[in-house]
């Protein structure tokens, strides 16, 4: 099991969400889907991996789909944390983009099976999955917008880039499509190759904002 899967839930949960059984259930779901895929995963698989009872599962989740959504949100928060740690607002924004893209894609590549589940299977949940995806993409877009808008231009005679919320969401959607394409083409092990096109996309969108 990868470090990414083992880290799920504990670093991102606080207060009520830090409840031990809740964390163990998310980790159990991660292990189960990594071993069998979401479609073949049962609640029995989840509770066995988590080391808790079926009753405990239903104290936290109504369905396995709800558990998957929670896992998706926890994993996405870890990915966003990796991006946040790569940013340094004291440095020019264009120097930070490549570092942030590298951190994001490196995090995603740590667990290819879980990555496929979180990027592909979440879409099969219908509206709940789409709503979760929209929430997560919104959080990432808001971070990118704030991070780039709060960094310097690196040029005393030129303005810093300024992204609107729509532009930031365009960036998130574009990068996610690159990742989905890599998954479909079985190139998850080569996500580092997406750093260059993803970086160019962010820079192009930001440059357009200055016109």
* Regions with little confidence, pLDDT below 50 for 5+ residues: 9-15, 155-159
Shape: elongated
Number of strands: 0
Tell me the structural class: mainly alpha
Q: Describe the biggest sheet?
A: none
Average residue-wise pLDDT: 82
Beta content: under 5%
Helical content stands at 55-70%
User: What is the count of DSSP helices, taking H or I runs of 4+ residues?
Assistant: 10
Order of helices and strands, N to C?
HHHHHHHHHH
- Rg value: 18 Å
**Terminal CA distance:** 47 Å
Description:
With 211 residues, this protein is mostly helical. The chain contains 10 helices and no strands. Helix 2 packs across helix 3 and helix 9 runs antiparallel to helix 10 (195-209). The longest helix has 23 residues, at 64-86. Residues 9-15 and 155-159 have low confidence and may be disordered.
